[in-house]
Task: structure prediction
Amino acid sequence: MPANLTPDYLEAEQRYREAKTPQEELIALEEMLRTIPKHKGTAKIQADLKRKISQAKDVVAAPKKATGAVDPFAIPHQGAGQVILIGTPNTGKSSIVGALTKATVKIAEWPFSTPLPVPGMCHHEDVPIQLIDTPPLTVEQAPTGMAGAVYAADAVVIVLDASEGSILEDAEACLNFIKARKLKPVSEPNPAMPEDPAEPKPKRCLILANKCDHPAAADNIEMLKEFFNVGVRIKPCSVTTGEGVTDLPKDLFELLHVMRVYAKPPGKPADMDAPFILKVGSNVLDMAGTVHRDLPDKLKSARVWGTGVHDGQQVQRDHMLHDKDVVELQA
Ligand SMILES: Nc1nc2c(ncn2[C@@H]2O[C@H](COP(=O)(O)OP(=O)(O)OP(=O)(O)O)[C@@H](O)[C@H]2O)c(=O)[nH]1
Ligand SMILES: [Mg+2]
Result:
């Protein structure tokens, strides 16, 4: 096995091994292909992954043809990261997804109004981030397939109703749901992976205390902050006033721990319309592999405009990139 497989790849591989359904297998395989470093040393693994993805797609499609059964929670990742919103009934999950994306969501005064997950794209500046609205969970039960979706998502947003005195129990229900899947909610954008595979895996989380416009919200949020100190950031918000919602994509961008880098073809202006999305800490070689899988092997030189360099400075392959850098790769 090549030594340079990333923690993200290894995490996806672990999910593949633990997958319980063909849909979960497919999601994990696609994630493995997405996160594997693209160079000659991994060419065989990449080919193997593509073959397995093709087989998994056949298996996933087969029961659909026969019975119409398909996992609605198996939603392919899009954009800079996939963020799943979970919560007890009526907390405002659909309202948040509706406010930030063009997705058609069902918002209602009554609980259990969302029957199936709904994806939509929101944006932090020019960075697309995928949000997934979900049906509610309760202390007793959660929708079938939601555990796999939480596992597969890059980050989880727990949406609580701050107008309700039950905010602590609701938070506990969501936390227990995540913990029961051997995941450890964390706020740090770059959590250290546990050395022991039996230990829970870190999962980036944010808690939204929604409906903070309600008169009872301030006291409930104070109580939540005092008694629900689990190391995950609690952010008050209100879809009604927009507070904490309009700037939510920025929080998610930071939580996802990604950055955007613009490619400049040699002798041409940079393409500022479509940034490449890379993990924070990526270098020139990672960028080359994202542009084209053959590029790392062919790369002759690179120049960077942006942070910590003078304009157009020639850099090494291991030069660490920063958000909004412009990179010219010469093959
Ligand atoms: N006052 C107030 N009401 C809100 C806010 N956000 C949502 N609501 C209302 O809360 C109710 C439930 O909103 P939904 O978005 O449907 O909640 P949900 O979490 O998707 O509900 P389920 O799908 O049933 O789990 C609706 O009547 C919304 O208008 C808010 O910030 N403040
Ligand atoms: Mg809903």
Summary: The domain at 82-256 is CATH 3.40.50.300 (Rossmann fold). The pocket of magnesium ion (ligand 2) is lined by residues 93-94, 113-114, 133 (CB under 6 Å). The chain has three domains: 7-67, 82-256, 258-330.
